[in-house]
Each structure stands twice: as structure tokens, then as C-alpha cells.
């Protein structure tokens, strides 16, 4: 140990929440007149720096520190401008009053100044005034002349390898990271040749990022970490600096500028003054040339990093004791310190023996034994070290080694070669910024890889956020971070921080540092909306949770067990009540640690809190008794004192019922942030964003069979045909997919119905491709419902390519619809099947075998015939009636029997509705509905596009009917009222109508004012207000159909109806006999 300790003074840069403090107070005479001083500032030791000319008065700069801050932004120094002196460096300037008008001064980040030739520096032309580059020969002559004057610099030699980032002039996207070493820096010309080979274009000149020329190796070494390589062209300004590649210290939490003794700020009443003694051990090579800083933590706040400055080259040497005086705010009772260094200079490693603190106000003394290396290549590789306060020889808080699991996403080019830093925040402070240096894997941060790091810190208590980022250096510095999981060995808790975003200046929002809070399972929140029906699958028992009528609960149910369905009821936040779908009075409950069924709303034990795990599973915890969870053993029994907890599971895969209901809008997610999307060229990719371009509309065509239509591009379907998988399908059989659900993962696979065993798969680049199931995850899609559909198609009204029934239409007289009306042929996919006896699957609600007999009258047909069957629980159909030999069907006066449905598409030309007849009478009458469609009086409100209508009632629907006149579409004219008649089996009380307008161009859009439906037999009138354009755009999606609900109901008694067709300038009256 040295007998004579060195003494120096330094002060902290406090937290942003506290006011800045200093050691001395400066006073200004406000009665003096405002005097402007014109001054030029130069950079210490840099004759190539052209100087900064500034006008200074006490209005532009209130304090000397404000001037230092301004100069720090304009003079490139590693730690900002901290000292100003006269040109020869003999006299230091500490006050604004000391500056003289018309003089020049030198700026430095150190106390020691390096003088320069001001006469030569002032004559140097500015970079943008140079018309041609300096040749190598001319540069050598200039250097020789400078050496003759005594102010030149010899070519410097690199003793310690150093990273530097090189940008292409004018193109920030082209950049390379190089390491300055002895081999590539023999001469400046050799370095330019090396750069030319690396950048793949001739490099003649180097500039700093703000446009100053780098003329030699000495200037290159003094650069801040990034340069711009140019040919013979002049410097091209760009946002090189804003990318932040060369400033990891901002993430580190190190101050951009600190205040040395001469420039400290005044003390406040609540400030504290500390004497800091730092002992460097006597171990060989224990000293360091790096900048050392210290941070003090109290129960009120922290001091922020404080640099311990002094005479360069004499601090923190082997065996020395260095003493400093620092000032902090009122941090409260001290409980830990952090000491570290910047890892710069010629001697990076440092062996710290001990740190001693003395509170100069209270007299409290603290000793922090360290006895460890602070170096990346020594011991555990940690540079900063945290030391807790000792009381009676024991730490007040334990030192914990956190296990940090960093998962890089599965996206292509998701990995990074940059240096990654993390700062962890908890109830008891933070870790400071730590570089994630030593992974258990040979290469860090690769695509899809999870790297594990150790971060040692005084225990932080409950963690609530992290800040993670990188320095932007490296050939592939962009990084897609999936998540970070921190394991606390002291409390045995795991904290998950989901990111799922790019940390890349060229992707996402361009940020390379992100603040992440503990995950709140937002990605799965859509499953837990009120009204959803859920199933909870347990991977251990391979069964679903079931709540029996006797209130017993087990985890042995299959997916068709009706007692395994639970309806969601939101209480607050992530607290829910899950009621039995079959017995709404019972709910899943945790009472006294046992899982049972309880009457809902009578006990708080029915309230369960949902915790989403990193693997996507959910844990159900009692809201009343935290720590009690829904748990089952291997036998599917509720785990408890009698059954034991050996081999138990408390995690469940949550499945939502109704995902693939007819008309649903869904996402087919391929990763946590990507989804299957349709591209403009008709191809499909699994790398689409989880936004509207990836929305698909579900068309249910049978049990477990669906089609997927693009919402953004209607009538474009996902298909597999001719060894291609894309979105150019037209709705034919190549667009049929069987949904295979994976209970273990919650994913689904899409198998082609036409090509059995062939699935929609993803290539490594995300493109879709027909593949076979090899057990890989490239066929897994994770559905997410944007809008739920209905369980069964209501007639033909919901599918995109459904057949439309004919409606007679007339402007003056409605046509009758009782007789079949010919239409243009259209195709329709079967949505319900009728199996033959060998099929083994019955489509109808009763699960019975059905035989259909059709008796043809005096005229036969060779057309396709389809059948819909309506019951009190839904509808079955369309069902194709056909056999192998079609010429033998539907002959005059022939009866045909059917038991088998044809799954192929068919053409519908004639359609009528028939009620069931019992005892010679129909159970429901055929009703003639009078429909009046009002077109608005807006400009271009008329349309000649196909318009369809479907009426819904308690007994079903009328089917989607084309509005036409004797088989021909007509124009719905502006300001006109068009009358139609719809004949259908009685729908009972009407509930809504659906309007659809198929306009191919915006000029064909239609403005509908309202629709009136009259039922003459019951003297009822229903008014459905529309008052909008069709199609219409909602949230960026074009909707061609809209559902209208009755606005009012009028009872009337009449024999004749007067229908007015008005264009608001004249009125025409017509009478229609009802």
C-alpha cells in the first residue's frame, strides 16, 4: 500500500428526478450591461479541428456549466468538454467572466491539456471547401512539413485492439465493423487499402460522422467510434450519429458528462458529502487506466454514477489508496454500492481490494470488502460489482446471481453480432447496465436460440421491468428479441418479459433499446373475453377439466364431453369466473385447497386469477387464497392431502370453442408476431404481420371442413393445387381443408380434402408449400379470433360464393316468386353432409339415418338438385341429391331415393321452399313478405350491381335472394323505392335482414336509406334503417354486406298498399293488390 494517498474531488450526476448539485455557487451581477464575447474554441491536441466560433453572453449561457454542455455537443471528446484553458494549456478557465472577447481557447475532457498550433489550425479550410481529395503523395508531403514545424503527429501504433464502425458515404445502410490492430494500421495508406477491400469500393478519404476529415492514424484513433468512408466525392451528410452505434454508454447508464472539482454545482440543504476511499490490491497488474465510477443506493433513491476523477496516470495503481470527496442528494439509508469502470485505456483489468465510505455530515462509516477482479477476461467476467452494506459482519441484503434466459426469435436474420446490454429493475433498485458476455452456448444470440447468462447483484426484491439493447456494432447488428426470462434463485420465482420486436434501426420503429415490463399475457387475452366458451386441456392427464352435475371435478374428459365446457365471465383485471356451459348455476371453484363446483356469485372462491406461462399454458389461481391453484395428479384427480402432489400438473392449454364457426374472421398465426397472409401477387407467406392483411374469413362447409377467404381480397381463397399452395382459389374443391387440432400445443393443421395427407406448410423463408406431415412444426398454425361467427350457416346467407334465391323485382309492380325463376348458374359448397350407411358420420342434428324421397311431376330435369332441411336446432344443407348415373334421376313421374351426399360443388338453377306436411296440412304456412327498398337521394346513390337480401326470423332465414325482375338484374335508382316479394315458409317474428351489394368498382357503390318488410297476413310492418353506402370500409377492411335490425314495428290494417316511388322532384303512385 502507498503511504501517501492521493486526494481528488469529484461529484455525481444525480438522477433525473433530482436537481443538479455542485460544490460551489456562482453569482452574477444583474446590474451589469449585457456584453457579447466572440470566442473560438479548439480541441485539445487536434490541429485538424477547425474550431467552433461562438457568441457568449449571460443571456445565451446563464452558467459556465451550460456552456460546457453546449460545447460537449459540438466538440468530439470521449467524455464531453470538462475543462477549458488558454491555448498553451497553462491557465484553466472556470467562469464565464474569465473568457475574453476575440480570444481562442482549448477544450479537453481531461485536466491535462495538449497545446496546438492555433495559427495553422485557423488557416485549415473547412471540409466542405475542399474541391479535390489529397493524394497519398501530397498527404506525405504535408505530414513532413508539419513535422518540420514541430506540430505534426507521427503515425501512431495500435497497442490495444479497438472496434470501430465504418459507414459508406451517404448510405447509412452499408456499414462494416472492423477491429483496429497492428496488422491493418501499419500506415494510413495501408489502412485505406484495407478499407477499400472490405467496403468493395475505392476508399480515398475518411470523415468523422459530422463531416470533419480524418487525415491520419492519430486522428482515426481519436475518433469516437464511427467514421465515414468516401471515394473522391465530398462528404455527404446523413444521420450517422443518430443511429447510436458507438454509444453503448447511454445504455450503461453512465453520465454523458461529469463535473470535476473546478466545475461542481452548489450543495442543497438535503445533500450529503461523502469521503470515498478506494484501495487497489497489491496483486501484479492490479491497476487500471480505465475511468472508475461509483453508485450509492439508499432507501430513498440512488446517487447515479459518479466518476472518480483525478490526475491521469496516477489513480488506481497497484497498491494505491485513492481518496475522493463526492456529494449526493438525500438518498436515505445506504444499503449497497456499485463500483465499476469504463473498460477503456491501455490497462483494462482492475483488482479492487476494498471500498470505504465516510459520511462527512453524520460520521457514519461503511466498509465494503471486494477482493476481486473487475475485468471481462478475469473471474466471472463482470466489470461492475455490487457490494451490500454490512451490519455486524453480515450483509443487510443477500447477493444473488440471477439467471437470465434470453431467447432470440425464430425469424430469419433474427440473430445479432452486436454487444447486448441489460439493466434489471426491482423494488430495491437496479443492476445497472450489464453486458451479456458469457453464454453457455458457443455463439450468442442466434436465430431461435436461448442463451443463459449470470448477472450478480444485491437482491432487488420483486422485479418489474428491464431495459435491454445493443450497441449496433457488427455485420448483422439487427436483432429480433423474443423474450427474456429471469430466474431468481433466492425466491425461486421466474419473471417473463415478452418483447417479440426488432431492435434494429432499419426495422420496426428503429429503436435498438427497449424497456420491457413483466408480461401481462396480452397475447392470449382474446381467449378470455366475456361470453367465450373454453376448454382446459391438461398435458399430464391428456384430458380436459370436467365439472359434473354432482360438483365433482376431474381432468379426464375428452374434447366432446359437454361437461368440459366453461363460459367466461370477467370480474376484474385477470380475475374470472368460469361457469359450466351445461349448468350455468355452477362454476369452477377453489375452496379450502380443493377444486370443486360451487354456485356462482355466492362464494368468492369461484373467482380465479389466470396466469399465463412462457410456454403458453395457463395456471388458475384462487383470487381469495393466493398460492392455491387448480392442480391434478396423473390419475386426473384433484391433487390434495389424500392423493398427494407427486407427479402433478397445474398448467392447462386453453382451447376456445367456435374458432372455426361459419363467418368468423381469424388470424392463422405462425409465430408470436407473424401470421399467414395473402400477398398482392396471390402467393401466401407465413411472415405476414398480425394485421388486416392477414385476416381470413371462415366458410364452414361440413363437420371439421372449412374454406378460408381473404378479407382484404374477397373471392380469393387459400388452396392447394398442382403442387402449389397460394391464395388464388375460387372456392372450388381445391379450397377445402380439414381442420386437425393439436391439443398439446393449441395449434391446428390444414389438410387438403382433395389431396389427403397434404398440408399447408411453410418453407424456411416463410413461403407456403404443400407438404406432408413429418412431425415438424412447419404445419402448425395458431388461430386467433378477430370476430366470432355462427355455429351453423343460416341457409345460404353467409358464404361468399353462396347461391342466391330469386326474388321478383319491379319498380312499379312486384313480380310473384312462387314459380321457379331461372338464374345464372353459380356454385355453392356443401356445408352439411348426408352420409351413406357406410360413411359412419351423420350430419343431421338427430344423428339418425335419413332417407330422402323425391317424386318428380310431369316434367323432369338433368340439373343438379340440392336440399336444405331446417329444424328447431339449426339447418342441414345444402345437401346434394345425386347418384353415379345422373340420366336416371328426376325423370317425369319418377320417385328417387337418396342416402348419400355429394361433397362436390354443384350448380343451382331453381329453388323453392316447402314446409313439412302433417295430416295433409303444413305445420308452418308459406308467407309472402313484401319488401320495399329505399335508395337514398345522394349523388351516385344508384347502382346496377347485384344486390341480395336475406330475411331472418325465429324459425330461420329466407336464404340470400337476388333482387331481380324476371331473371334480369335491374338498376336501383337514386331517390326511388323498389318493391319486391319474398315467398318463404313462415319465419315467425322477424329479427334482422342482411343486405349484400357486390360492387366491383367504387362508382357502382349503392346508398341504401332503409328497408321495410311487411307481413300482410298478420298486419305487421318492420322498418330496418340503413343510411349508409354498400360496400363500406371499416378499420381498413371492405365489407360488402351489412346486417340491419328492426327500428320499429307498426301494426296496420289494409287491403291495398300504395307504394310511392319518389325522386324528390315528382311523385308517382302505384297500387299493388296484396
TrEMBL record:
InterPro entries: Doublecortin_dom, Doublecortin_dom_sf, IL1/FGF, Inner_ear_hair_cell_LOXHD, PLAT/LH2_dom, PLAT/LH2_dom_sf. Residues 272-388, 400-517, 927-1044 form the PLAT domain. CDD domains: beta-trefoil_FGF_RP1, DCX1_RP1, DCX2_RP1, PLAT_repeat. Pfam families: DCX (PF03607), PLAT (PF01477). GO terms for cellular component: axoneme; photoreceptor connecting cilium; photoreceptor inner segment; photoreceptor outer segment. Its main location: other. The keyword Repeat applies. SMART domains: DCX, LH2. Gene3D superfamilies: 2.80.10.50, Catalase core domain (2.40.180.10), Doublecortin domain (3.10.20.230), PLAT/LH2 domain (2.60.60.20). Keywords: Cell projection, Cilium, Cilium biogenesis/degradation, Cytoplasm, Cytoskeleton, Repeat, Sensory transduction. One of its GO terms (biological process) is intracellular signal transduction. Microtubule-associated protein regulating the stability and length of the microtubule-based axoneme of photoreceptors. Required for the differentiation of photoreceptor cells, it plays a role in the organization of the outer segment of rod and cone photoreceptors ensuring the correct orientation and higher-order stacking of outer segment disks along the photoreceptor axoneme. Interacts (via the doublecortin domains) with microtubules. Interacts with RP1L1. Interacts with MAK. This is Oxygen-regulated protein 1. It comes from Falco tinnunculus.
